[in-house]
Design a protein that fits this description.
Layout lengths: L13 E5 L3 H12 L3 E5 L4 H7 L7 E3 L12 E4 L8 H8 L4 E3 H7 L5 E6 L4 H15 L6 E5 L5 H4 L8 E5 L2 H5 L8 E4 L7 H4 L2 H9 L10 E5 L3 H7 L5 E5 L8 E4 L2 E4 L8 E3 L7 H16 L4 H10 L8 E6 L2 E5 L6 H10 L7 E6 L11 H7 E7 L3 H8 L5 E5 L1 H11 L5 E4 L12 H17 L2
Parallel strand pairs: 1-2, 1-4, 2-3, 4-5, 6-8, 6-9, 7-8, 9-10, 10-11, 16-20, 17-18, 17-20, 18-19
Antiparallel strand pairs: 12-13, 13-14, 15-16
Helix pairs in contact: 5-11, 5-12, 16-17
Amino acid sequence: MKGFDPKSCKKGALAGVLGLGRSGQSVARLLLKKGFKVLGSDHRPKAELAAIFSLPKAMKWEWSGHSDRLLKCAFVVKSPGLKPDLPIFKKLAEKHIPVYSELEIALAYSKAKAIVAITGTNGKSTTTQLAWEIFKAGLPRGRKALLGGNIGVPISATAPTSNSKDVLVIECSSYQLEDSIHFEPRASAILNITADHLEHHGSMASYLNAKAKVFREQGPGDACVFNADDPTVYKLSRECPSERLYFGAKGVNSHAWEKGGRLCFKLPGWKKEIALIPPKLPGRHNLENAMAAALLAFARGLKPAAIQKAFKTFQGIEHRLEPCGGVRGVACVNDSKATNVDSTLVALKAHEPGGKHLLLILGGLHKGSPYAPLKPWIEKTVKGILAIGSASRRIEEDLSGLVPIFPCGDLETAVATGLKIATKGDTLLLSPACASFDQFQDFEDRGRRFKTLVAAAAKSR
């Protein structure tokens, strides 16, 4: 079954949009612009939705649940994150009403033929942003690189503006891939895979199947980049029908590796390897992100000079180990994007062991994974844990006895407590290992609130 075809729909047909978050609102605007009538549907109460809406008056919408009005739609667009076992989806299936992802709707209205897609449990946003910077630097005049997807810019807002020679660089979550019927990027990447979002997918097998959709529809002339050091990713790569490119620590069976402070590359058909200076970003994981971004660019024919230019200027992105000033000699780092245990583990590893100098803000909405894997690096680097959110009790249970744990409840209390017990040379690190939805709209809202609190503390010192 192929994906969404606009030509198969009657003019003025009714389209449903389930979930009216950022991507839902964006795809609703696109469908209205393309001549559809749109019914938006969300489980949240009217007052909460009205506060975040910026939709045209022409759109009809319902709140506090999904009604049978959706059964009158020609098709429905499912927003990422909605569980597929909701009763409304069974009803839609019984009526043979197609359900599409925002990704497929957006690409159906895109003229761009070159799609670059990045997925993985961690590192997606940094790799996607860096790949976009590389393509911007390397594409010839008259061609644009457009950025969108899970990175915070809905793909339905950018893809329809593309021309045939442009390149779409897309961050793909497992939610977006899960919902896609037909998705065929010319170059793709799977950075790593660890247990995450299992409360949504139901099993690791379902999670892997969603991630694999980034290469399932590829063919000759396409390429997918894989992490050779990740056993799960390496095993999954054997199912890939397109060219397989690998990055790894030591260059064994890899096309990209690190050696002597340089990133080395040698793709199939190359006579010699080339070496590039990596971006100035903390942590081993960022070397891997840079290798993946470069391999994607090489797979699409870009030159080393463009990659090196982007490496030189890239400064990282917001909410990913982002330095955000200091207070009385205490450095403050915003890693709000660390919404799972593995992401927080990466953040701890990025701070070189040299005594216990980290005050770690941990917690939020628990996602089902234990916090015990953090123990070895907490013992090496963490001075104290500042627990927040509904996960606080589980954090205390899993990590008690390692370092002092301060139950703070909310972020404001955690920042104040952390700065009170910190001494000069310490680092206050927000790397929660949890989702943000118990107290914030999203991880971005949480990160910006952290930066506001730090700025206020610095100003009042």
